[in-house]
């Protein structure tokens, strides 16, 4: 086999929508488990049937059906040219990623109300919003059964709306293992970017606990 005939290795690439799906709920299933493993990997993961079996713990047919579902939904891609895996500490990378996630100001807080990073807010504003984020997590947990089981709402995000119904400030809950993070976005979110995937990859490698 000459050089031109060699097969090009493909790699798993989680998309922005796949990253959001992976962190949308604390409830673990096989689809989310695969996405979380890929997002938390330190290197590119090549696609081979044996690798897919190992990642999913399933036989070839079931593993391929799982992969087909994720690719059909646009949550996962196979590519020969994957995006670079982000390197560096979360403290180094948040100033780069956060400003790209909304048209306005951005803040990332944990469920205890600690501000991990922000873009555009004054220090006192960031501290107050981080504390508010912790209250929103508690409020959502108190009313989770009403919202999901009785009203049928699966979303875990909250927002402050203007008179036209547009979000002025959105609170987006991200589940990373057993921990929750609040992404506070002013104005229109722009989460369909690689910077969102990179942010979650960094968070998972720092905080993910299965």
Short description:
The protein is an alpha+beta fold. The chain contains 8 helices and 7 strands.
Describe this structure in words.
By secondary structure, this protein is α+β, with helices and mostly antiparallel strands. The termini are far apart. A hairpin with a 4-residue loop joins strand 3 (106-110) and strand 4 (115-119). The chain contains eight helices and seven strands, in the order βααααβαββααβββα. Helix 3 (49-56) crosses helix 4 (60-72) and helix 5 packs antiparallel against helix 8. A five-stranded antiparallel sheet has the order 4-3-7-6-5, with helices on both faces. It has a two-stranded antiparallel ribbon with strand order 1-2. The protein is 42% helix and 19% strand.
Number of domains: 2
Helix-strand makeup class: alpha+beta
CATH architecture of the largest domain: 2-Layer Sandwich
From the spread of the alpha carbons, the general shape counts as: globular
CATH class of the largest domain: Alpha Beta
Q: Care to count the β-strands?
A: 7
> What is the succession of H and E elements?
EHHHHEHEEHHEEEH
Strand order of the largest sheet: 4-3-7-6-5
Mean pLDDT: 90
Q: Report the CATH superfamily of the largest domain.
A: Dynein light chain 2a, cytoplasmic
